[in-house]
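In response to reviewer comment 3 from the previous cycle, which asked for concrete evidence that the modeling workflow produces usable outputs, we include below a single protein chain processed end to end. The sequence was submitted unchanged, and the resulting C-alpha cells are shown without manual editing.
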Amino acid sequence: MTLKSPEKYIESLNDGRIVYYRGKKVDNVATHPVLRASVNHASLLYKWQQDPDKRNLVVKKDPEFGEISSFYYIPKNGNDLMNRFELIYETTRWGRGFFNITKAIGSDALFALIIITKHMDSMLGTSYYQRVLNYYKYVVENDNAIAVAQTDVKGDRNLRPHEQQDPDMYLRIVEKRKDGIVVRGAKVHTTQASASNDIIVLPTRAMTDKDKDYSVAFAIPANTKGVKMISKPEKATEAALNDSWFVMGRENVETETTTIFDDVFVPWERVFMAGEYQFAGPLAVMFPTYHRFTAISYRAGMADLIIGLGKLLAEYNGVDDKSNIRRDVVELIKYKEMLRASAIAASNLASIDELTGIAIPNTVMTNIGKLIANENYTDIVKHLIDIAGGLAATLPSSQDFENPEEAPYLEKYLAGKKGTSSLERSKLIALTRELISSFGALFTTAMIHAEGSIEASIIELYRSYDYGESKKLAFYASGLKDKL
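The workflow returned the following C-alpha cells.
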C-alpha cells in the first residue's frame, strides 16, 4: 500500500461535503480562509510520513499491510502503548503544542469497536466484528483521516433517550431496511469532522431495552447525503489573520462542528451496532479509555510548551531567580510530569483483552491522569500569567512593532533583562496572550470537558478501582480480621 501524501489528503476533502461557517455554506474547506487552517494542521500528519527525520515515528511496519500510519497500529502489549504515548506526545510538540487529533481519535474508536464487537458477537451471535475488521482494513489501506461523533445533544439531561420530548435529542435509527439503516439526530463537539474523510459514530452512554433505537454505531464518508456540519467560529484563526505574531491560530488549530444526521442512510457493511443495547454502555466506556489515554499523552505535550514558554518569560523578564517564579515553573513541571507518569503507568499496567489480544490502557491510571489534567489546568494558566505579567493583556499589536514610527519606542520601553531582545520578549508575551485569549475559551473548556468531563472520570474511577486489598487491610488494621 502507499501512504497518502499531504496533497492527496487535501484534495480528498473537496468532495461536496456540506459545511457551514458563520451562516454561509463553504465551497471547499481546504481553501476557506479560516477553515483551511484546520486542514493544514491535519495535513502535517501526512507531511511527516514523508519526512525522513520524522517518518520513523509516524510510520509503522505491519505484518499484514506493510507500511501504515503508526496511529492505526493495533497495540498488543504495554510497550506498544508506550510507543503510542510517544507518538501522540511528539506529534503534539511538532504541531507547536497543539494536538493533531485526526488519526488518533479514529484509531481510539477502531480499537474499541474491534474489542466490543468481538464480545458482542460471542454473546449475541451477531456478525459485527468482521465488518469492523473490513472497515479497519479500508481505513489503513486508504490512510484515511477519521473523526468521531459520540456526544449527543441530549436535550433534557435528566431524561433517558427514549423519554425525551423530541426523540431526536439522541441520534437514533428511524428505519431498518434490507440494505442498511436510516439514522436521524445530531452530535456535538465532532472535532475535525469537516477536515476528515470519514466519521465514526458511537453511542454516548449506556442504554436500556427501551433505548434500542439509540444503540447504534457506524462509519460513513463525511460527504454522505444528509450529513450537515455547522462549524463553530474559529476565533483564534480569525484573530491570527489580523496579527502576524499569532502563529498557532494561523497554522495549528482544529475545528469542531455540530454534525446533523438528517435521515442518513448507512449500508449494513458499515453498521457496527444496531439495537444491541447491552453493549452500548461497554462501547461508550471502552472508547473513552483509549481516548483518555490519548488525552494525557497530548496534554503532556501541551504542558511541555507551557513549561518552555514560562521558563523563557522568566529569563527574559529577569525574574528566573525569584522564589515565587521558581514555584510557578515547578508547578508547570509537576503538571506535565504527572501526566507523563500516568501514561507510563497506564501502559505498564495494561490489560490484554482475552478475545482479541488487544492491549487496553489501565483504566485507573488513565483516569487519574485525566483528572489531574482536568482539575489543574486553570491553575497552570494562573502560574503562566504570574510569570508573564500584565503585558499578556496589554501588549501592543504586531502592526505597532512593524510601524517605523512606533517601533523604536517599543524596542526601548519594552526591554527586559539586559542582553535580551525586546522583540523576542514581546513575541513570547504575544504567544502567552494567544494561549489565554483567542485560544482561552477553547483550551479552558476543552481541558475540563474534552475526552469526558471531570465527573465522567470520577464515575469510572470509582467504579473500576479494585478495593479488595484495601478493604482487607482495613479489616486487619481494625482487628476485625487476624491477618491480611
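The mean pLDDT is 95. We consider this sufficient to address the reviewer's concern, and the full set will be provided in the supplementary archive.
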